[in-house]
Amino acid sequence: MLLGTLGAPPASAQKKDTLLLMRQLDTLQQMILNMQKTLDTQTAILRTLVEQANDNVNGMKVTVEELRKATQQNLAQNNNRLESMTTQIQALSESLEEAKVRIAKLSEQVAQTQNIIQTLNAPPPAAEGAGGTGPGGEAKPPASVPDADTLYKSGLSYFNGGQYQLAVQAFQEYLQYYGETDLASNAQFYIGECYYSQGNYSQAIEEYNKCLERYPRGNKLPAAQLKKGYALLAMDQQQAGVRELRSLIQRFPNSREAELARQRLRKLGIAVSGRRGT
Fold first, then answer.
1. pTM as predicted
2. Whole-angstrom Cα distance, residue 161 to residue 66?
3. pLDDT digits 0-9 by tens, 190-236
């Protein structure tokens, strides 16, 4: 009996073990609850972050779309500005060339001025008309009409300054009195440019046609045909505009205007055969 009693664990010891185990189980359950709360909190935070990310992505999509539209509008505006700048550069180049010519003619103009002064000081002959004739019987413009260089320079100055109506008047007066000179085709071309710059494309086409038809050997033929094609496209006459640009490329394949025509046709998605210089 004594041995049996000694071999069995005391009841108090078993009770202590049971209590310890229960406390450990409570602690473990509390840890699980804390972990669940932490997980719920982190899940809520993560859900909030995902929603914010979605909102940011949607906002970025809207911003990108607005930026794309603005970029397209800017490109269209830049193309128009580039065409206008090209015309301005052509006019400035023309002015530079003419300045060189005027410098070479300076001594001749001084002599002409002296002759005019002498003519004004002398009484006019009764038999002469208002226009008068030159030494060889060649008709001369009335004394009140500026010389050719002055008229042409005035037209270019008005054009470069955006005073298109005054430019048209100056160039038309130039053509009236000096329509057979080398710069007559240039004056006719710039009349068309004045109307083109004002958006009057039908009148511009009419003036470009005059340049093409009246001055078949003028140096503004490629430019006039190019801008005629542009004007037709601006009036939504795409078939006629494309035909004009292709004709330009065929007639003047190595010109700068032909390259500009190729670029415009490519923008329209139209295949262009041949390259500049080929």
1. 0.53
2. 36
3. 999 999 999 999 999 999 999 999 999 999 999 999 999 999 999 99
Q: How many CB atoms lie within 10 A of CB 253?
A: 15
pLDDT for residue 133 is more than 70: no
Q: Which two tokens stand for residue 170?
A: 């100056």
The per-residue pLDDT for range 83-110, each reduced to its tens digit, is: 777 777 877 766 675 665 565 455 445 5
Length, in residues, of the chain: 278
Q: Are 164 and 194 in contact (CB under 8 A)?
A: yes
